[in-house]
Sequence to fold (287 residues):
Amino acid sequence: MDKVQGGYVEGIVSIIINTILAAAKFWVGAITGSLAMIADGWHTLSDSISSVILVIAAKLMSKKADREHPFGHGRWEQIAALFMAFLLGIIGYDFLKQAVEKFGKSEGEPVVFGSLALAIMIISVLVKEGLAQYAFYIARATDNEAVKADGWHHRSDAIASLLVVLGILFVQDYWWLDAALAAIVALFLFYAAWEIIQETVTKMLGEKPNDELIQKITARITSTHPEALQLHHFHLHDYVTQKELTLHIRLPRDMTIEKSHEIASEIEDMIAGNFGISATIHVEPLP
Fold:
């Protein structure tokens, strides 16, 4: 399964399950008047919306490189992840605002829940954590950042639903607990949004190749071409569906241009075959 397939599969499964869960939460929230349950329903629905974005992004990612985009369209994955993070933040702000307004009342009535509400929320916790584990599995298998972001949506919703379960059990003794739980749900949304934005922006701005990758490439080159010395100036450009690596090697000063070109080409082919990275090598003479 590649990035595109992973995005399609996880996105479609998420859309179906989240839509059903959100409808159930809205229904029970409307009956009981629970702000926390309605907020959690919107959180779940936002997961459905983010999964729609994920499916669209997967479709856009599948487009092949063209003249305007010679490195492909893989960064639609990161754009989708940012969009989902902003969506989480907007919904979190709205929940927090409603919770503060409810806290501002001088007195309030405790929300009355029934066994149906408790059952739905317990099912939600289990299902959402299951979706999170499924999304994280696909993200690890395909290295898809947007799927990983969708997994965090599921995880934060599972935690939020767990808090609502606690509210159902204790809200009769503390009328303000429903608003407090809605505020906590909002904070979880803010945290998830920040984590996604931070990780995605870092990748879009560009990262230094990790030391482990450099060591593996260096070891492979020196074992097959011991004459290539003093490897340096590693730069990795990640376009999601395509990775471009540039590096410098030093070869003996008396080596012909033809032989130098042959060695550089062999190393480039080796990196592509073993690491799935397109490499461009600059040759320098040994001092």
Summary: The two ends are 47 Å apart (CA to CA). The beta strands are 229-238, 243-251, 278-285. The mean pLDDT is 79. The chain has two domains: 3-205, 211-285.
